[in-house]
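Listing S7. Sequence submitted for prediction.
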Amino acid sequence: MAVFARPRQAFVIAGVLGLALSATACGTGNDKGSDKADSAECAVYSKYEGHDGKKVSIYASIRDAEADLLRDSWKQFEDCTGIEIDYEGSGEFEAQLPVRVDGGNAPDLAFVPQPGLVKRFADAGKLKALGADTKALAEQNMPADWLKYATINGTLYGVPLGANVKSFVWYSPKLFKEKGWTVPTSWDDMIKLSDTIAASGIKPWCAGIESGDATGWPATDWIEDVLLRTQGPEVYDQWTTHAIPFNDPKVADALDRAGTILKNEKYVNGGFGGVKSIATTSFQEAGVPVTTGKCAMHRQASFYANQFPEGTKVAEDGDAFAFYFPAIDPAKGKPVLGAGEFVVAYTDRPEVQAVQTYLASAEYVNSRAKLGNWVTANNKLDIANVASPIDKLSVQILQDKSGVFRFDGSDLMPAAVGAGTFWKGMVDWINGKDTASVLQGIEGSWK
């Protein structure tokens, strides 16, 4: 899932949304805008002029401290344009957005991390197609592989915003150096290292899949990453589109292989308890024991850098960093699982289109990247503006031509499955239900 914050997804959308009117528009009587009427900050965004006094509502999963940063980022936008951003972040975003949309209370814009949910809204006639300016900018700046995830029946409905790499394992460089452990570069080496760490008295793995209404999503990422590594992208695509059944033996094999770690009492759950504690440990807290020496490794996306305690040095020589989740079958290439959110619109007022267009621009993505802890699939991102070591590594992986990228599988599936029975099935699996029964239940729910 894209957590952005999947719920899931923990994306700090703290970019400086500097949508602004021209010098003339900035000085149209708005107290906030008039002070900057002649400023370069406003002039550079003159093409977004004419919306003084308007309000645009945005709904997403970004909340708490990250939501505060997001709200702070609207200041330049509000000062220059007079547009008020009415932002709301919720931990129950995936569950509540359909309720609001179906109930006639949709936001103007939403940051949706599930292409399956985008399709559901588009098929129901709830979404507005991208305006001409937004569509042109999206097609110019975004890779075609990303645009296809928001294209339904030939119509483009969403603009990719943030992105994340999910194929990461977090660890403590300091602890690894102290213990003489080497970062593994193959699945077999990773299992051997896990055995070595377990023998030392430290649990090699920590994990957590609790996430409010989205509980279960972190376990789906495990299955997707393993399936890409055992079967390759063709089978993965067949699975996410239901060209093969959800309980195909190839999928069962991937789940069982993930279980050799997640359901191994010798391996988990460092800092929290046994296997079943995974179901009640929040994904936000799950990797923190890496920094306290209570566990050695935590498989989670690049955005997890935002979850470590304040003061944690995230770097190759720091308190925490990440290595690429190793391949299993070299013949399957270098699989990369990732996700991101899409900016979709439920209304098409001019001021709403202005915000959506700006979010697709080079100016936005580079100003956002300079704030840290954020990457994007937008090809106008200049890596020189990416300061964080983990973000640089993410960009390098995303731009690696030898990589085989696939979007998060549960996000591609129909929402009732990907964000429903799949999530719930993973909770049941962690709590002891057998693989065959779990997969059969999910397969039976796919309509």
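Caption to Listing S7: primary sequence and predicted structure tokens for the chain studied. Residues 217-240 form the longest helix (24 residues). The chain is about 40% helix and 15% strand.
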